[in-house]
Amino acid sequence: ASMGWKVGDRIGIAPTTHGSDGTGQTFTIASILGNNTIQLSHTNPLDQIHEATFLNGGAGGDHGAPPILKSAEVVNLSRNIIITGDDFEHVPCDASIVSSGETSSMGCKCSATRTTCTLGLHTIHHSHHDQGGGGGSAPGSMKISGTRVEKCGQRGIEGKYCLHFHLARDCPSCVFENNAVEYGHHRGITVHGSHRTTVRGNVVWDVRGANVYIEDGNEMHNEISYNVAVCPHSLSDPILQGCSIPGTSNAGSDAPNAANHSWLPWNKRRHLVHH
């Protein structure tokens, strides 16, 4: 196929039901015809309406504007490289951890909303800049590209995310590109205290919490471009409430009406190169 998709790849089709009340679905590509038409496996039957139509006159009702396509996002969830781990583990909270805030980087802190924490794998680039003196560039960099990251994030523990640039300072060689992040807790891709990084062309599917999270708002000149974030769960689901998640350090970014795409502090968004 022209996009490089292959027979056997898993794809996800986003919900299009009004009011975020639909569900996304995943399928396997069974065959690809000569005209780039994709046939899906019948293992999971299509049981949702996924809209694809043209709106005449543009989105704002300008009848002189060309028609625009309104359709469900279709994303490829397969990659040749996989970062995976055991299934999520539920561990009891530690009453000895005392700190301000809802979560702690020291472990699973007990709170009014939590007696256990949900632990998956996490990845992080940490510059350890506190050992290197003042400002400027930090040693080392991190690049993850063309990789599937799954069963990731640690709900209830601060700083444990699926993909994470942490205090990397000026790091133009720090790149997350063309990855697929699926089935995660406590945010998908986080940029914290890092500048001139690249987060481009990633797919985030079924991650509870903000999918792309710019933590402090002092992050500058990061390229956040062409990423697709899909919550496959209905907002009316009594348990999941879309892809929201309780008991995090930032309820505003992870609440039902905020999740599931990007969190950028409003008063600091001018610092970002954001497509």
Q: How large, in whole angstroms, is the Cα Rg?
A: 20 Å
- Specify the biggest β-sheet: 5 strands, parallel
Oligomer: single chain
Mean pLDDT: 84
Q: What series of H and E elements makes up the topology?
A: EEEEEEEEEEEEEEEEEEEEEEHEE
| Total DSSP E strands | 24
Structural class: mainly beta
Q: Total helix count?
A: 1
User: What is the terminal-to-terminal distance?
Assistant: 27 Å
Task: Give the uncertain stretches in residue-range form.
Answer: 130-134, 266-275
Arrangement of strands in the largest sheet: 7-12-16-19-22
Could you characterize what this model shows?
The structure is a single chain. The protein has 275 residues and is an all-beta fold. It has one helix and 24 strands. A five-stranded parallel β-sheet has the order 7-12-16-19-22, with no helix packed on it. A five-stranded parallel β-sheet has the order 10-14-17-20-23, with no helix packed on it. A hairpin with a 5-residue loop joins strand 2 and strand 3 (38-40). The longest helix is centred in the last third of the chain and has 4 residues, at 251-254.
Brief summary:
With 275 residues, the protein is mainly beta. It is built from one helix and 24 strands. The protein is 1% helix and 35% strand.
Question: What would the keywords be for this entry?
Answer:
disordered C terminus, 275 residues, five-stranded parallel sheet, 35% strand, 24 strands
